[in-house]
Every structure is written in structure tokens, then in C-alpha cells.
Design a protein that fits this description.
By secondary structure, this protein is mainly α. The chain is about 60% helix and about 10% strand.
Length: about 100
Amino acid sequence: MKTESAGANLDIDQKYKPEGDNITVKEYANKMGLTVNGLCEVTGLSRMGLNNILAKGQQANNDYRRRMAVGKLLKSINEDADRKVKSVEQEHSERVKLLDMFYNK
């Protein structure tokens, strides 16, 4: 299926192709903010299993395990984002409190 965007013909399949195609496990782990060992721990998959999925593009032998791995990664991403938000909110609150020094309070 083809579409025109900004005067160029684009294949929709290529346009929406996931970034993860032919990416190394280490690159993927870094983008996720994890080490390879951490990625293995979070997903419950071995290095070889991750490599087969990410680098070789093979289908997972067990769709249930893949779904569980994706769920665990999503949970990890959300927990990391929540920690960062709390940290930034705390930093903001401390900076606002420092403003009181201008009023000698």
C-alpha cells in the first residue's frame, strides 16, 4: 500500500516499521535504560532468546512468554517514569522553598 506524504511516495509498511528491527540486544537494553543482564532479568528471557527476537527477527516460540516479557518491560518503563517524575517534583518543590529565602522567611 502506497501513500503520498510531503510529495514523496512512501510504503506504509516501511513507514510504520518498528525501530527494533535488526537491533542488537545491547543497543535495545541501552535504549530501555537497562543492562543486558537487567533486560534478561526483567523479561525472564535468556540472552539467546532476546538475540533471536531482536537481532535475528525470529518469532518467539512461545507467544505467552513474549507477552509476559512485554508486560514486564512495560511495568518497568512505567515504574522508572514514576520514579523520575517523583524526583523532578521533589526537586521542584525544594527549589520553590528556596525562593522563600528572598523574603527572609
